[in-house]
Amino acid sequence: MDDHVIEEIKKTCDKLLTDKKLLPLEQLNQGYNIFKEKFSPERLKSLDGELLIDTIFNIGNKDGLSYWLEFKNDDEFKTNSNSYGSISGGSSYKFIMFKRSSDGKWVTGNPQNPTILSVDEAVELGRKIRDALVAGANLIDKLSDDASIEDYIKLQEQLSNTLVYNMQNLGWVHKYYHILYPNKIDAFHSTRWQVHALICCNIKPVQDDKLYTMSGQLMQIIKKTGLPTSYVMNSMCVLFGPPVNYFRIGTGDNGNSYWEDMKSNSYVGIGWAKLGNLTSYDESKSIKEDIAQELKKLYGYDNNVASRKAGEIIKFYRNIEIGDVVVAALGEKVLGIGKVIGNYEYVKDRPYSHCRNVEWVKIFKEPVHLPKASTGKLTACFQYRDIDNIFEIRRLMSEEIDEIKIEPILKPLTGTVAEIEGVLARKKQVILYGPPGTGKTYYAEKACSEFAARSLFHKPYDSLSQNEKALILGDSTTNGYVRMCCFHPSYGYEDFIEGIKPRVVNNQTVFELKDGIFKRICKDAMENSDKKFYLIIDEINRGDISRIFGELITLIEVGKRGKEVILPFSNESFKVPDNVYIVGTMNTADRSIALLDVALRRRFGFIELMPDYSLFDGVVFEGLPLAEWLKELNSRICENLGKDARNLQIGHSYFLEKEKPIIDNEKFKRIIKEDIIPLIEEYCYGDYELISNILGGSIVDVKNQTIRYELFDTPDISDLVTALLSPCPDIRIGVETTNDDVADEDNDSEDNQNNSEES
Predict the structure, then answer these.
(1) 3-state secondary structure of 590
(2) Over the stretch 7-22, which tens digit does the pLDDT of each residue have?
(3) Do residues 107 and 216 share a domain?
(4) Segment 292-304 mean pLDDT
């Protein structure tokens, strides 16, 4: 690791402190000290009987260890601020034993094979775990402050021999030890995060599956910075981003190479075009089996090959995510390395029709080789898990080596953004409409930013530098090419076009003429007639359109652009130039299109956005499949809320965070409680019989006219899930499926990966 990385970590930490995104050191240390007082090894050792298991393993006990480690978040101890590292996600089984909220029983085992314990059995198990936890703490306590990597390897071996029930691999145990010994144990409580942090620091993990060995390597970095462990961890999270996966993508088959097309058009792809668009399989209950059957029919594969190739296809379609790293390879040769910047697309006229857009980080003049070059070479899509190859990929991405510099190629737009582009080209203004949470504002911003980037820089928005993005979006001192306003009942002509506004000068109120946002953007567009300007009007239907647009409602029409009118306040001549485009959004739950101003309707194009259930494929909460459950919920809304019900459906955006589905149980619970239920209560005007028809009788207490909020009061969500599924129990799936599962089909040896369509 060079000093440059250390300096970048320090700079990032300084900015986080300036922006008040890190706990002040005094508060951070106070949290460590309070935790140690409550849950020190000595304190745990003194406990026995039901007090022991209630203190350590009862997640519902807000004064207990497991609750503090995962959920405690107040001025006393802010675990949810990520100051001490996160262990969120998964189920309560990760604590080895827990008290089930539904019946107060002590449970151990796993979701597939739970075991109910008597109190005596729970106490006996609790003692074993407690004794091991204390013994492990004593080992770490003896570790010197300047311990070497060899010392940490030895510690890992000692903990493996001392701890029981695989505790040396459990995140909550690692977090417990970190809080006790923050100068010896790091605050990344999973090997995935540890590996990511190390390789981003150009350090190869010594043992990439050992929490405490990698703690030693991370502590060496932390000590070089001179900063608290918590500060370094949070700075790394910001600096390096979340962990990513690494995939090898084949670029040829049967002697043909499609690398030049992939390189020139900035994508990676796989074959089997005859399957058609893979989204057509989204409704399938057994997607792998269905694709395998099609492969046998279309390509003549036997059962084994069809199953294996179906796994590769699904991996490309479902497992690769935006931000992941792809290695374009032909046999053992690495031709280029890129970052995924787009979701799956089916492009029929490409040689490899199943595609993902990428930003090429490296294009090599001469092919290079990975340490284990033959790994996955006979597969179309293969996930690298071997640390030697992953470390070399990161090195190649960052090192100055002989490479070809290529400009990003502007690929045709697709999907909703392409549809918006088409309507703007025809009418110059469009309204995106649909139920709440269907991504209307998201698509408005995404589309306008993309259009401006292509117009100004001839590049996709995602490939722009921060300075280029700032030119498009503007900042506190400069207006950008994409601007935004939000209509509301009190928004008027004077805000949008021009008006008399008060201002205080020398303690005196004076009135002066001010230009509104639309007049300003039109002026800027006239001064820069070779550039395109975009105005996003959020919630356009909430304003009084006739009053806001006034006489300009005529001038925005395509055939009337460039015609002049005299403005009433300034007496200035004004026109709407051709290079101004308007994108509005409207929530149809507030007001249907039919109620919009007729003059406005005629001058705008309209694009409907509805809930997109495909975003949640594979997202499951304790047996509740999010996609199917949301679809069923919307179906009941449509059945119960009359002719306007289609406009009242629940959109997918409620369950997205940073454009990705939420997978955390607590977040899911909060969204249901704080967003979904209040929205449905509003739709039903307090009619609890109607609310019960939609949400289910297990959530709604019709007799007492209330929601059963006690279902939300415990960390365990199994009772809540059962209640949510009560109107549609048939969609429940096996609890063995979790959001942490990653399909691992990469263990096929090369000997049985023949008959590949690509290599």
Answers:
(1) coil
(2) 999 999 999 999 889 9
(3) yes
(4) 93
